[in-house]
Amino acid sequence: MKPLVRPPRLTPGARVAVVAPSGPVPEERLQAGLDILRGWDLDPVVAPHALGRHGTLAYLSGTDEQRAADLQNAWCDPSVSAVLCARGGYGAQRMVDLLDWDAMRAAGPKVFAGFSDITVLHQAFATRLGLVTLYGPAAAGVDFLKQARAQEQLRATLFDPESVRTLTALPPGRPALVPGRARGVTLGGCLSLLASDLGTPHAPAGARGGLLLMEDVGESAYRLDRCLTQLLRSGWLDGVAGILLGSWAACGPYEELRAVFADRLGGLGVPVVEEFGFGHGDGALTVPFGVTAELDAGARTLTLDEPALS
Question: N or C: which end of the chain has fewer CB within 10 A?
Answer without folding.
Answer: C
